[in-house]
Amino acid sequence: MDTDALTTGLLKELRAARPYPALSLTMPTHRRAPDNAQDAVRLRNLVAKAVSRLEADPAVTREAGNAVKEQLDRAVTELDPRRTLDALVVLVTADEHQIWQIPRTAPDRVVLSDTYLTRNLVAAKAQAQPFWALTVSAEHAVLWSGTQDGLNEERTGGFPLTAPREAPNPQREERIGDTPSTFTDEETRNFLRTVDEKLRTVLAEDPRPLYLVGLAPALALLDEVGESPKSAVGRVAKGVPADMTPGDLLKELRPALDERRQRFAAEIDGRLDEARGRRAFAGGLDEVWAAVREGRAGLVAVEEHFQQTVRVADEHLEPVSGEAADLTDSSVREDIVDELVEAALDSGADVVFLADDALTEHGRIAAALRY
User: Is residue 29 a contact partner of residue 87, using CB atoms and an 8 Å limit?
Assistant: First the structure.
């Protein structure tokens, strides 16, 4: 599965306690040849490591270990190398397996616990900045789940919706003198009210930025009869043919996505400037880590591709190079940025990802503090 499937409810479910052992396996992957040739070898080595850990753990019964190994084998068999992104996350228990391809790198890790390791999924979802796009006409409404990388039609909340149409009534037309306009037709108004009602339910369950796509009269009528358009962050006044591909729709949305991205970056700069002015600002990994651990961070801004291996010493973070890091040392954290992002979100902070070099003067990560 991809990160656009990671709803708030699903993440909560993934982080729930499970019978021991819950196995989490993460590793970096490559999108293109020839680099992706090494992924299969790396995966085999990690799977072998996971099997060894299961067999050596006295808390894992033979029955439980065999069941987990069977699920792990199924996951490996189902992997599609054509869909690799920047990292692979495999989650396995005796009863299930899940495969996640994420657009954010993750280290080689094998973890046995009573919960899944979700920090890389959480960080990838935050970085992906998922959004909803609604394509709407007088007859049809389709909901799309999107990220900067792609769109998928979402079949949830009653979508897609098609307007019920009555058969033509010549006697009625004769009485009125003409066929009513599509966008003054009460049936169309009722249909768009239904679209709005369904859309509000989806937004309440999984809040995301909303983009609207459709002909100007359709968008105007949706504005008139509905509440959800008020929250839209972008609009594209263009008809959407029934055979439009997700790639074509993303191309149409790109100017609106880029415009919002620029506005959003400017807004974050303003919030960080305001925090500096009132001396409620943290800059750099060590300061932001401390603020997050203390629950003082209200906003955390991170450059998109910032990753750092560190050693935790005396409650401070000491950067170490990947080559020099002893990953068997429990004080070494290879995915500290993802861990920080997950902790920040848990504490109620807003986490945003900015373009690379946007926070160079602050060590690539910064925070506005609550106090």
Answer: yes
- Of 123, 113, 105, which is closest to residue 27 (Cα–Cα)? 105
Highest mean pLDDT, choosing among 43-47, 172-176, 329-333? 43-47
**Residue 269 contacts residue 361 (beta carbons within 8 Å):** no
Reduced to 3 states (helix: H, G, I; strand: E, B; else coil), residue 96 is coil
Query: What 3-state DSSP class applies to 23?
Result: strand
- pLDDT score for 367: 98
Pick from 50, 24, 25, 21: which is nearest to 114 by CA? 21
Average confidence (pLDDT) over 101-121:
94
Q: Pairing between strand 350-354 and 297-303?
A: parallel
**pLDDT-based confidence at residue 157 (cuts at 50, 70, 90):** very high
Scanning the chain, the segments in alpha helix (DSSP H) are 8-14, 37-56, 62-78, 119-128, 170-176, 186-205, 216-225, 246-277, 285-293, 336-346
Contact between 132 and 144 under an 8 Å Cβ cutoff? The reply is: yes
Three-state DSSP at 113 gives strand
In terms of Cα–Cα distance, which of 178, 169, 132 is closest to 154? 132
- Length of the chain equals 371
